[in-house]
Design goal:
The complex is a heterodimer.
Chain A: H1 3-20, H2 39-71
Helix pairs in contact in A: 1-2
Chain B: H1 3-23, H2 33-38, H3 45-56, H4 59-72, H5 78-104, H6 109-116, H7 120-152, H8 159-209, H9 212-222, H10 241-255, H11 259-262, H12 264-267, H13 271-280, H14 282-285, H15 288-301, H16 311-318, H17 323-360, H18 366-390, H19 395-406, H20 410-418, H21 424-443, H22 455-473, H23 479-482
Classes of the chains: A mainly alpha, B mainly alpha.
């Protein structure tokens, strides 16, 4: 497993717990915070951005790996022996 | 000229433009079933992005979302929460499914599972499940179209006529162009919806309260219970975390398993474009925030609006907005309804014929299959229209019920690509038992061991248990059948 997919896995697990349980109860409060929005809305947007960043990171790593595969080292015919 | 007349003219123009945008792209794809159902695997990133986005954000989001925010407060955040979690599996499953589609000629989700598990029964079962889940989803879209036109014209256009005219346009371009028509109209509709959502979400709080912050301060003073997570239940009591959490999880599990979304993996021009679509997807999801702000805007200023799903058109009729603006918003809401309805209609008919009728009758030739798909498009429209006019359920409520069934596809789909040991008996048994248990708790919620828990959770628990136990009790599948699914 690559570092980027591990990072996505960790963020995804965090978001899964964060978005479906009251474990981070403070984050779900109705207190008004940033831009006058309730903290729960800010929390959901924050987790959305975190997951987005992790998927983007994985996409970039995949693209780099693909480019490396295409332009990378190839054994020259007969050189293995 | 009266506001409703101008609004109607704008909506009519919008419908005319959509019709043209839906018919023209169909001329570019082949007349085969692959062209009609999977666009000859030629859909680029831009169209794919809007198809996935606009298909999901529908009347449910545009009318049901504000309706929930208005009546149930932050409970409506579950809609954003499940979207965040639900799209990620497509990054991994979509490219693999596309590869299998290209290799074996699949254009539906059920074909993939039927091949992997070597079972025609699973294909027919999925066809029945998909069509059964699609009908309520389609009803939601038609209800949305009827509701917006009826409310904005103050009853001069009836609910039934509004839904009927809008879906006649959808019917024409789906019949003529198939998925390519769906793709290009969704692009047009997606752009339109995003502009309308952001404009209204910021403008309505400003107009009614002087800003978003002031609006929430007002809600905190007048209805603080709406801002306390997880919000309110339908009857006005506090919603439970079990109900909120399970709704998020089941909807996330079902999100990309909706056949009309999953099938777009086959339409993608490349794996890269499919992955890029998932990467860009949150930009579509963030537009649910202004959508919910629309609902919150009505809480203090206009309490007691019924049905709550009509809060958006209600606000439009109460504020002194320019008639042209009202017309554009009305058209934007129609776009939300049509952009999902067309995709659902097309997918439901394709699946019903290709996975259901064709399998049960021993196969159909390409010409006949395409003809039957079109006939089913018409039949399903009529069935959905019948239920649209005849049922009273809320938009979000209807969709939540449908999600439980669709979520049952996730375990066999994950097993197809991630567990070589998964067998026909395990997958078929798990899916059947999962659907049965989900349906049982949907019909008899009083039997649920945890009150308020979404019935789909019980279905998923039963599904996974039978999948694992059933697979381990039967002989492993042949490696030549399984190996292609594990090649990177």
């Amino acid at each position: 497993m690559s570092r980027a997919s591990g990072f996505l896995g960790a963020i995804y697990a965090f978001a899964l717990v964060g978005l479906s349980t009251p474990l981070f109860r403070g984050a779900w409060s109705g207190e008004l915070t940033f831009l006058g929005l309730p903290r729960s809305i800010v929390w959901v947007i924050l987790l959305l951005l975190l997951v987005f960043a992790a998927v983007l990171q994985l996409y970039r790593a995949d693209s780099r790996a693909q480019a490396h595969d295409k332009g990378g080292w190839r054994p020259v015919s007969g050189s293995e022996s | 000229m009266e506001t409703w007349v101008v609004a109607l003219i704008v909506c009519s123009l919008y419908l005319a433009v959509t019709l043209v945008a839906g018919i023209l792209p169909g001329l570019r794809v082949s007349k085969s079933v692959s062209g009609y159902v999977a666009a000859d695997r030629s859909m680029g990133t831009l169209v794919l992005y809007f198809v996935l986005g606009a298909s999901v954000f529908s009347s449910f989001a545009f009318l049901g979302g504000p309706g929930w925010a208005y009546s149930r407060g932050v409970a409506a955040l579950y809609i954003i929460a499940y979207g965040v979690l639900g799209i990620v599996p497509l990054y991994f499953l979509g490219p693999r499914a596309r590869r299998m589609g290209e290799r074996f000629g699949f254009v539906t989700q059920a074909e993939l599972l039927a091949h992997r598990f070597d079972s025609k029964a699973i294909q027919i079962l999925m066809a029945v499940l998909s069509v059964a889940a699609f009908v309520p989803y389609l009803v939601i879209q038609m209800k949305g179209a009827g509701l917006i036109l009826e409310t904005l014209t103050e009853g001069r256009i009836s609910f039934a006529v509004g839904a009927g005219v809008t879906y006649s346009v959808v019917l024409i371009y789906v019949l003529s162009s198939g998925v390519m028509g769906v793709g290009w109209t969704n692009t047009l509709q997606g752009v339109f919806m995003m502009i309308v959502a952001w404009f209204l979400g910021l403008y309505l709080p400003y107009k009614l309260y002087g800003g978003v912050g002031a609006m929430f301060e007002g809600i905190q003073r007048a209805r603080p219970e709406l801002l306390v997570a997880p919000g309110l239940a339908g009857d006005g009591s506090q919603w439970t975390w079990w109900a909120f959490g399970s709704s998020v999880l089941v909807s996330a599990a079902g999100f990309t398993m909706w056949p009309h979304l999953f099938m777009k993996s086959y339409a993608a021009i490349s794996e890269r474009s499919l992955k890029l679509t998932v990467v860009m997807y949150p930009t579509f999801q963030i537009f649910l925030v202004p959508i919910l702000l629309i609902g919150f805007a009505g809480v203090v200023a206009y309490p007691g609006v019924e049905p709550t799903d009509s809060i958006l058109p209600f606000l439009l009729t109460q504020l002194d907005l320019s008639p042209l603006l009202v017309g554009l918003v009305c058209a934007g809401t129609l776009a939300a309804s049509m952009s999902s309805g067309d995709s659902i209609l097309h997918a439901a008919a394709s699946i019903g014929i290709r996975d259901g009728v064709a399998q049960a009758s021993g196969g159909l030739d390409d010409r006949r299959e395409r003809l039957y798909i079109r006939i089913l498009v018409v039949v399903l429209s009529l069935v959905a229209f019948y239920f649209t006019v005849g049922t009273e359920a809320s938009l979000v409520g209807l969709l939540l019920a449908a999600y439980g069934g669709v979520a049952q596809i996730l375990p066999p789909m994950l097993a197809a690509f991630a567990w070589k040991r998964a067998t026909t008996l395990g997958a078929l048994g798990g899916l059947s038992v999962g659907i049965a248990v989900n349906t049982l708790f949907l019909v008899r919620p009083d039997l649920s061991p945890i009150p308020g828990m979404h019935e789909g959770v019980w279905g998923l628990i039963a599904n996974v248990t039978v999948l694992v136990v059933g697979s381990l009790m039967t002989a492993p599948p042949k490696s030549e059948r399984v190996e292609p699914y594990f090649e990177s």
